[in-house]
């Protein structure tokens, strides 16, 4: 689903984050910009002479240029000069520490300014860092005391002139440390990383930073044209003094940085976020033993409860043996004699036996009002059906067939978002808002090529080899060659891929380090170049991608630890494809057509190619999940057919009598069994038809599970009805036998069926559509099945009985056998108790009657119940994507690889609604994170949360279009926001053509003339634009391409981050700030990350009074798990409560209903304990199963409890009688299920040993055993395993725990015999 899709979703999500290329683009320009900036700045002025004194220059003027155009300073020392007023003011605006004389010409200063403007956009958000950074180069280029700390160490001849080739720059460690500390945390929002990654190659201290700045750049590579050797101290004899201009702390109030750029600032430390409390588990330590609090509490409760029970039980036994009970045997003897007398009369007088049997329900038991009415109804109804079987059969079948007409509107829902996302879902609404106001998340097509683990050590070798990279080029060639047909046109990758700058596809692959061109492989240096780019992808121009953005190795590699990219064991190739909100649009259909061709290519060509190299290949497309779900709809058709055949054979054997060669063709019930199966199928079809008619689509779970559930429930009822009829004496007419059978079993069938219907119906309250629809279909199907059982099937029993009495052959009723046939086993008068019934009454009941056995039973069952309560806390929410797909799906391997190899988390967007940017509003400062923004602003809070990723699940500060926009219009970023004299937008010099709006034509070369900075400081209010200025310049920013002159252009990076529709009114309806979740591998991680993001947004939104919500692609599928425990407990409480009410109404016994309630609760709790043991997750599917188990478990409790209530004698005798009459039926059913399971496992062992290892099935429902051969794991785990657990727990509770409980605290008997016991002894003596 997209659970599964998102499915993929969920895990694919992590990668999608990485591929957020749209916002990555601006970075590439910035990267090269900065590098050239910092290095060019180093070249300024030189002194080949050895004079080192105040007011003396070491370098002055420009004497040449390298072949790549980089200018070189003159190495001649000279006295500093006094600039004119214009040059002095220009220098002061950039270098306020330079006063008086200078050591640079105007040309040198213009070069300095041009180079500095490339770095300014990275640092302008933190004025202290920017000032320190500018001072480093201002002092190098123009300081009047330049010779005191600059020493020219080598020169070269260029064009006949000597030029500087190397210098020593003496700087104190204090300045270096101050510079680094002020800049180390400054963020570069576009890439969600630190600016130091680009202007310092990720330096971890000032020494590394200086080493990066001082490296001589190769030709045509950004950087310094000569070497700079930074030294902390100068030789004493040289007379030189290291430069030590005052540095500003990032926490300086006059040049204050934001909290995101300076977490150590005093103003920020007070607002440091308390860690988003990760709910730790409470534990208790006793010596060396450490236990969870819940385990400890449950153990204490258990000890107290068992101790109290044992004390009470022993005291009760002592009282029973005391004198108070010495008179009771007289009463018992009397009653025994009376009972014996009645029994003797029954044996001696068959007519009396017949009368007693036929009226037992009414005359021997004190019925409740409801039971009385039900008995009367079933007696009259049974007589009517026996007299008019064909009419009843035709009418009942006709009604169901009428419902089946709705099947003409039958449709199957396979879209993940429609299956797993509830109506009114908050996440669904947020996704709709995000998609419609900003942009839908792009589609992902992905390949994962991995090495196989070493056989001896189990470690996978590195994937980064020459052969593997060449294989990657071959794969890429085939993918580029895909031509998919859509409506007669051929679709290739370049037609649908995401192109942030409208040029090259933003493919995420290590091949980007070669610009996706195999011809560059050898030219760039092969594998060595790749490994070099792993470390310098942000600072080396040759490492930039073909789509002109740095490629983070973590997005294209997998299976590595930390930053050891060379150890990666997998290539991850991702193709971002444009998406559309409307899935029926041509854009979406074109993409789907290409995706199908992509998957076909991967299966038929790429997979064999990769495997031939002893590698593995996993692959997926955006539409893969939905396609595999559709394929699954037909995958188990054979399984369903086999299951029905198995159930048909079972019914035929069960309904018939013991096979005897002489009469099997008469006594068999094959035709009756086949008819019963057809009725079950009709009930399922009727349910599906009804809901199809009202417009509700079916699902795969309905198609594959409900037939088994309803079939097995129907089998139980069919067996009960047939055997009830067979127990009736032959002396009665057929209509008497039918009516007596319905009176005998009708109430119990009704009670069980209503409980099941209610339990299924309660599932319709679950918000997940797939499970809600499943519950609705199942409830109606079970109801229709029950109605058909007591109408059509009873009529069929009548017709079959008439056939047998008329000696007609089963299956061929037209054939009549001459002679008479009498089955010696028919008729209650001749029927003897079977071996199982005798075992139950004479062995099983006696064992359970031993007092110490009772104590053990209560203690063991209570122990498991309390242990299950403790185990419940270990159940994790979620639904693994692999489970919902067929076992043979190619996505199984893909999801496994995603979990194993991906090292990046899903993208996370914080969406702000109705942002008021007007100058009257404070919301700008409440959102931004640069200088003068509030310390508790949204972006500062995100930055602080990223410092505690283990609880916030936020890995990086957010990329902020607002911060970058404010920097872009800042006067300090003089290369960014520029305008022509007429006020129209002026593009950067390196982005020709330069055209003003009034020009009719323009050239493609040359710098833009007559352009000025958009604003002076005097034009802004506290560095903030007015409403009109903001409104005018925002579209400029979003259209501006990132460049060497200004890396902060918003085009590509923030194109889809701001909605401009209606923004003219001063309010931006929607905008987003992108960050990333930490890598999420388990379902619980996805759930917790979503919970943490929502809690964070809620807290910040409340604090700022701004509407903010978090959005990530997987939220829509995981929202259900935030409250899954609450949903589960409420639904279980409603289901158990409904069953209790039904039992109370029908039995009119609070005592009996309470005991049934207790046993049901214990079964459900134990089921959840088993879920924890088997690692079955809590989700809508398992919640539905738990709710359904309430209704199904009723059958294990109701019959024993009812038999106990209508039996006579004391509790021990009544328990023995109940086990003798009903225990055999429960045991026979469970025993048959276990036998069937063993047979199926024996067969399945040859087919798949792993299925046996999963060894559990729906033994409660015999037909569902075949589901162990289902090609979809979800049926094996959530139906196969859970229903076996239900059968075992129901069997044990119904035949072991419940009898013991009834023998201790059972309700009073409704038998008239018991009432006589309670009379005074005097009446007996009379």
What's a concise summary of this model?
This protein is α+β, with helices and mostly antiparallel strands. It contains 47 helices and 24 strands. The longest helix has 37 residues, at 769-805.
Strand order of the largest sheet: 15-16-12-17
Nearest-integer average pLDDT: 78
**With helices defined by DSSP (H or I, 4 residues minimum), what is the helix count?**
47
Which term fits the overall shape? elongated
Alpha-beta classification: alpha+beta
Largest sheet: 4 strands, antiparallel
The helical percent reads 40-55%
Oligomer description: single chain
Strand content: 5-15%
Outline the low-pLDDT stretches: 1-47, 324-363, 824-831, 1231-1269, 1313-1326
Radius of gyration: 41 Å
Q: Report how far apart the termini are.
A: 78 Å
Q: List how many beta strands DSSP finds.
A: 24
Structural write-up:
This protein is an alpha+beta fold. It is 53% helix and 9% strand. It contains 47 helices and 24 strands. The strands form 10 sheets. The protein has a 4-stranded antiparallel sheet with strand order 15-16-12-17, sandwiched between helices. A 3-stranded mixed sheet has the order 5-6-9. It is elongated, with a radius of gyration of 41 Å. 52% of the residues are buried.
Which descriptors would you attach to this protein?
disordered C terminus, elongated, alpha+beta, about 1350 residues, 24 strands, three-stranded mixed beta sheet
Annotate the secondary structure layout:
Elements: H1 5-18, H2 25-40, E1 56-57, E2 62-65, E3 71-73, E4 78-79, H3 85-94, H4 106-123, H5 127-142, E5 150-158, E6 161-170, H6 173-183, E7 187-188, E8 193-194, H7 196-199, H8 206-214, E9 227-231, H9 266-269, E10 283-286, E11 289-292, H10 293-320, H11 328-348, H12 350-363, H13 369-387, H14 389-404, H15 416-420, H16 426-437, E12 443-451, H17 466-480, E13 484-486, E14 489-491, H18 493-496, H19 520-524, H20 526-536, H21 553-556, E15 557-558, E16 570-577, H22 586-611, E17 615-620, H23 624-635, H24 637-655, H25 664-667, H26 670-693, H27 700-727, H28 734-762, H29 769-805, E18 808-809, E19 812-816, H30 835-849, H31 851-872, H32 890-901, E20 907-916, H33 923-927, H34 938-945, H35 949-952, H36 961-968, E21 978-980, E22 1011-1013, H37 1027-1039, E23 1067-1076, H38 1083-1104, E24 1107-1111, H39 1115-1118, H40 1124-1147, H41 1150-1173, H42 1180-1206, H43 1211-1247, H44 1249-1253, H45 1273-1305, H46 1312-1317, H47 1321-1325
Parallel strand pairs: 6-9
Antiparallel strand pairs: 1-4, 2-3, 5-6, 7-8, 10-11, 12-16, 12-17, 13-14, 15-16, 18-19, 20-23, 20-24, 21-22
Helix pairs in contact: 2-4, 4-5, 5-6, 6-8, 10-31, 11-12, 13-28, 14-26, 14-29, 17-22, 24-26, 24-27, 26-27, 26-29, 27-28, 27-29, 28-29, 28-40, 28-42, 30-43, 31-41, 31-45, 40-41, 40-42, 41-42, 41-45, 42-43, 42-45, 43-45
